Amino acid sequence: MYTIWKYPLVLTRVQTLHIPLLEPLAVQVQGAGLGSETPCLWARVDTDNDPEPITIWIFSTGDDEIPPHLRLNYLSTFQLRDGTVWHAFMQDR
């Protein structure tokens, strides 16, 4: 079955999620104004498939060097209430 699932992310450089991924849809902050902010990935998934590892990279504007050897696909840019701007990428599988 195809559906959309949400995956909370950690604000760290690299993380691996296990998802029966069809396609990533967006990364946005959820909970802004409610006291806590959580970046989340929304993805279209196939629940009939086994989860596979995907690697998510998150870089801040101007502060993080992106390793040139990585093959990354842009997902989204999101901003926190403190004004920091972050950019999420998925590494080629």
Architecture blueprint of SSEs:
Blueprint: E1 2-8, E2 14-19, E3 21-30, E4 38-46, E5 52-60, E6 72-79, E7 85-91
Antiparallel strand pairs: 1-4, 2-5, 3-4, 5-7, 6-7
Shape assignment: flat
In angstroms, what is the radius of gyration?
14 Å
Distinct helical segment count: 0
Strand order in space, largest sheet: 2-5-7-6
Helicity level? under 10%
Main beta-sheet annotation: 4 strands, antiparallel
| Oligomerization state | single chain
Low-confidence stretches: none
Q: How many domains, as an integer? A: 1
Give a count of the beta strands, DSSP E runs of length 2 or more.
7
Could you tell me the strand content as a percent range?
over 45%
Order of helices and strands: EEEEEEE
Assign the structural class, choosing from mainly alpha, mainly beta, alpha/beta, alpha+beta, or little secondary structure: mainly beta
Question: How would you characterize the overall build of this protein?
Answer:
The protein is an all-beta fold and 93 residues long. It has one domain (2-91). Helices cover 0% and strands 60% of the residues. The protein is built from no helices and seven strands. It has strands at 2-8, 14-19, 21-30, 38-46, 52-60, 72-79, 85-91. The protein has a four-stranded antiparallel β-sheet, with no helix packed on it. Strand 6 (72-79) and strand 7 form a beta hairpin. The mean pLDDT is 94.
